Amino acid sequence: MDTDPPAPSAAPAGTPGLQARKKLAAMHRIQEAALGLFEEHGFDAVAIEAVAAAAEVAPRTVYRYFGAKEMLVIWDEADEHASSPLTPQFAAADPVDALRAAVRAGFAAMSDADLRLIRRRVALIYRVPAVEAAFTLHSYEKSRAIAAAVAPDAGDRLDTQVFVHAFVGAFLGALRHWHLTDFDANPLPFVDRALTLLAQGFTDTD
Amino acid sequence: MDTDPPAPSAAPAGTPGLQARKKLAAMHRIQEAALGLFEEHGFDAVAIEAVAAAAEVAPRTVYRYFGAKEMLVIWDEADEHASSPLTPQFAAADPVDALRAAVRAGFAAMSDADLRLIRRRVALIYRVPAVEAAFTLHSYEKSRAIAAAVAPDAGDRLDTQVFVHAFVGAFLGALRHWHLTDFDANPLPFVDRALTLLAQGFTDTD
DNA sequence: CTGCCATCTGGCAGTGACTGCCTATAATGA
DNA sequence: TCATTATAGGCAGTCACTGCCAGATGGCAG
What we know:
2 copies of one chain form a homodimer. By secondary structure, the first copy, chain A, is an all-alpha fold. Chain A has helices at residues 18-41, 48-55, 59-66, 71-74, 77-81, 87-90, 95-108, 112-127, 129-150, 158-180, 188-200. Chain A has 11 helices and no strands. The interface between A and B is large, with 49 and 48 residues. Chain A binds a DNA duplex through residues 8-9, 17-19, 22-23, 26, 47-49, 57-61, 63-64, 67-69.
């Protein structure tokens, strides 16, 4: 019963599959509806039922796709596929520069529409504490997963833990500053500077 | 209820008051009951109702005191009073060393019983993602509040944001490492080393 | 000691997030 | 085209959390 995973489709990765396409389209529709409603009425005032109705799916489906209400804001399609173009570089002598390159690459692959969407999501993330909490943990876990994939044996080491967490912290600090300054400028320099601070250390700062 | 001598006759003006004392005692009783039940049955399997019953209070009271279920784990009495002995030092040339001193002072003021309690709480924090998320946000907010109190005008600056978040990240990394190594050693050296890494920067690390 | 006032605890009822189970339906592979 | 399998939707239930009201309790002036 459970020992029967006959690989319904070993996923040659070339074909997205029709079902998968419909699901992804529905997720986009649902997230778009959710963001609009959250922006207008506030996160807490909008029930999942309303989101489902606006996106023309069943509430059960929203839960199946996103798992939790906060994920309606946090979910990023890019997280689905792109595991990391950074994997090989991470082990390099200078992990900060590797991350910098990865972040740059991520931003470069981003359209204007993508950036607009991110702005809306970040605004909501920092407007709703529950969402911010979930997003922070989400970031930690993504970061830990990358670290574990690159250096499986060093995962528990103190240096690794501190670096991973400090990196996420610096990144979130940059994101938060971007939000606090009303998304005026391009966020990339912020992240860049955050990483530089991390690399140089805080001995003389402030 | 039990051995609680009211006798507030010779009480100086600075006394917390009898009601406040009863409340604090109840909070300790509730947290103790909660931790025990969570450790035995798992966080999700224990309803607030059960915690309330074990602590001999009404469920409504648990919510009134702790606000959210995760706070039953996160709440730390020390947070109530001690705002920060670090306030004056923070603005010094070397903020990392100021924090190091503050952390040391915090640990020094800690009894063995305190440390045991913290171990239990940290174990639960990292066993339950929802609690970890809440604790992380809680840490961020505490850190931001300190920063805002010390340097009200620099709060939104990128450097401040990055430093505050990276500091919390490093601290949480040390805490997590302590947990991953089964709380074997004294945690202070971990935090110490985390702060050193933060101060020196990560250019050559790993 | 006593009665009055402020505050607090507890019970009640309601909202809404989230889950397990089952059925209808749509996609996939032969 | 047909059999198989994955998937969306509906139903019912649990539980975290909140506002509201009544009863109890501590604090205090007379």
